[in-house]
Amino acid sequence: MVNIAVLGYGTVGSGVVEVINTNGARINQRIGDELNVKYVLDLRDFPGDPIQEKIVHEFDTVVEDPDIQIVVEVMGGIEPAYTFVKRSLQAGKSVATSNKALVAKHGAELLSIARDHNINFLFEASVGGGIPIIRPLNSSMTADEIEEITGILNGTTNYMMTKMFYEGADYDAVLKEAQDNGYAERNPEADVEGYDACRKIAILSSLISGQQVDFEDIYTEGITKITSEDMMYAKAMDMTIKLLASSKRDGDHLHAIVAPHLLGREHPLFNVNDVFNAIFVHGNVLGDAMFYGSGAGKLPTASAVVADVVDEAKHLHRNIMTMWKSDKLELLPIEDTKKRYFVRIGGNAAVMQAYLESRFGSIEVVEIEGLEGEFGFKTGILSEGEYREIAKEFPTIKGMIRIQE
Amino acid sequence: MVNIAVLGYGTVGSGVVEVINTNGARINQRIGDELNVKYVLDLRDFPGDPIQEKIVHEFDTVVEDPDIQIVVEVMGGIEPAYTFVKRSLQAGKSVATSNKALVAKHGAELLSIARDHNINFLFEASVGGGIPIIRPLNSSMTADEIEEITGILNGTTNYMMTKMFYEGADYDAVLKEAQDNGYAERNPEADVEGYDACRKIAILSSLISGQQVDFEDIYTEGITKITSEDMMYAKAMDMTIKLLASSKRDGDHLHAIVAPHLLGREHPLFNVNDVFNAIFVHGNVLGDAMFYGSGAGKLPTASAVVADVVDEAKHLHRNIMTMWKSDKLELLPIEDTKKRYFVRIGGNAAVMQAYLESRFGSIEVVEIEGLEGEFGFKTGILSEGEYREIAKEFPTIKGMIRIQE
Question: What's the predicted TM-score (pTM) here?
Answer without folding.
Answer: 0.95
